[in-house]
Design goal:
71% helix, mainly alpha, Farnesyl Diphosphate Synthase
């Protein structure tokens, strides 16, 4: 029986899953896939929470991340026996990065960050379905980087206001004449919208790898990954729909469920 505390934690995790841009674990998936996906998501969120805890200083958060790594190393593989540990170590590394560097000088720096903060998630998903092969991993990395960049576009104001972090590359801010004060404004200026539009276009180009990835997969892996790619495409739709004003209060930049479903069906309709 699940106790009240554990039940509350499960409920919180499920609520956070529903807030994601993509379906973490489709209900249609068999339990042998759905359960490790839920567990991997919960662990990834725990790592991110340790790296974002507003009640702790950066030095304290680094200590917390070190303690969490020691715990994982001591308990693996019994914790998640079907999954590799390395992707979660990369997530820890990304959160350590957040404690010391809160700006991205270049787009290449952002891609390097995504290699630690986003791409490991795709590798975990592929591992759950025993589909982590040389011909799928690179395509998955593109999709995960795209999903991360789109999330950064959605959270521009929140990241700066709540965490003093700017993930959009400084070289791109300069290119479009955007200052950090512009990112604190109550609505996005024309230049901010142009900047966000450029980042969304970049992410969408990376997300196009998702079609090739889905076609290389079969069975439940194909269905699950189509859901992730569809979530990214629907997120890009949402950002375009609000004309890239990611700063205005009340503007909805979340993907519509029906759009996720439509994109997923289109991806699955393409013959392998």
């Amino acid at each position: 029986m699940i106790g009240p505390v554990a039940s509350g934690l499960v409920a919180d995790t499920r609520a956070r899953e529903r807030a994601e841009n993509f379906p973490v674990a489709l209900r249609a998936l068999p339990a042998r896939y759905r359960e490790p996906l839920h567990a991997a998501y919960a662990l990834a969120r725990r790592i991110d929470d340790a790296g974002d805890d507003p009640t702790r200083t950066p030095i304290q958060r680094l200590d917390d991340l070190d303690a969490l790594e020691a715990e994982l190393r001591a308990s693996w593989p019994s914790r998640l026996p079907v999954l590799p540990l390395d992707p979660f170590l990369d997530l820890l590394a990304a959160n350590r990065y957040d404690q010391t560097l809160t700006r991205m000088p270049t787009y290449d720096d952002l891609l390097g960050y995504c290699r630690l903060s986003a791409n490991p998630i795709g590798r975990v998903v592929l591992a759950v379905f025993a589909a982590d092969r040389p011909d799928t991993i690179g395509l998955s990395d593109d999709v995960c980087t795209a999903l991360q960049v789109l999330e950064h576009c959605q959270d521009v104001g929140e990241d700066l206001r709540d965490r003093d972090r700017v993930y959009l590359p400084a070289e791109d801010l300069d290119r479009y004449g955007v200052t950090e004060d512009d990112l604190r404004a109550p609505s996005a200026s024309r230049d901010v919208r142009r900047l966000v539009a450029a980042e969304v276009d970049r992410a969408s180009a990376l997300l196009d790898s998702g079609g090739s990835l889905v076609r290389r997969l079969s069975g439940w892996a194909r269905v699950a990954v189509a859901g992730y790619v569809a979530g990214g495409r629907a997120t890009a739709d949402a950002l375009r729909r609000c004309d890239y004003d990611v700063l205005a209060a009340g503007v909805d930049v979340t993907p519509r469920r029906r759009d996720v479903g439509t994109h997923a069906l289109r991806l699955l309709a393409v013959r392998r």
